[in-house]
Amino acid sequence: MGSLNTKTIFFFALFFICLYFPTISLADSEVDKGPEGWGKINPDWKVCNTGKLQSPIDLTNERVSLVHDQPWNMDYKPAPAVIVNRGHDIMVSWKEDAGKVTIHQTDYKLVQSHWHSPSEHTINGTRYDLELHMVHTSAQGKNAVIGLLYKLGEPNEFLAKLLDGIKGVEKKEKNIGMVDPREIKFHSKIYRYMGSLTAPPCTEGVLWTVLTKVETVSMEQLTALKETVDDGFEANSRPIQDPHGRSIWFYDHNV
């Protein structure tokens, strides 16, 4: 009889543990919602988990090839823009022609910019506090993205002009007037490789350019970008992906 009571107590204890602490099923559910489970959520996102040219990657000097060539030709100009809280990030979208960047004789029109915190790309294993993505599209529908990395320090001049618009922006377009992309600091030393979008549908064939020089961003600016995002994506960066032997090219126009 004593043995039966012990078994009964053990059964009920196990029942209540499973009832109130369903850790296994919860963990599986959370994984499915995160980047590791993107391919399960939507069949059109399958490449997120099966692709061989996914981004971001670690830009390590061990796999870099030096290229003696002009990295790009920039021709940006001021244009009317809006700021949008997309839930998972803050985006600045240009409503008229804000210019282009020309890479390998192909023109890519500047469409929008958005931020990820912490940075998505790493350099020799180092992850930074913020990354700006400038998204461009060619007439043939090809994508080129320029990535700029930031660490905590002095305020960023470009973000300083957008700070009032970022604070309190809702999930709808908010006009912020003329925005000049030329005010973003660019440098001639860059990494370049073929990758993908870093969010679903993770489309591959994206020409990535990541500047090697790390700029600064203030804590106030970084906090504003994080706090305005309100759907649980305050840390909105995709993990590093397998490079699968991809080449990384290094351009130094001053060489």
Automatic annotation (TrEMBL):
It is found in: Plastid, Chloroplast stroma. Pfam families: Carb_anhydrase. Keywords: Glycoprotein, Lyase, Metal-binding, Plastid, Signal, Zinc. InterPro entries: Alpha_CA_prokaryot-like (IPR041891), CA_dom (IPR001148), CA_dom_sf (IPR036398), Carbonic_anhydrase_a-class (IPR023561), Carbonic_anhydrase_a-class_CS (IPR018338). Its EC number is 4.2.1.1. GO terms for cellular component: chloroplast stroma. Residues 1-27 form the signal peptide. It comes from the Eukaryota. Belongs to the alpha-class carbonic anhydrase family. Belongs to the alpha-carbonic anhydrase family. PANTHER family: ALPHA CARBONIC ANHYDRASE 4-RELATED (PTHR18952:SF271), CARBONIC ANHYDRASE (PTHR18952). Reversible hydration of carbon dioxide. This is Carbonic anhydrase.
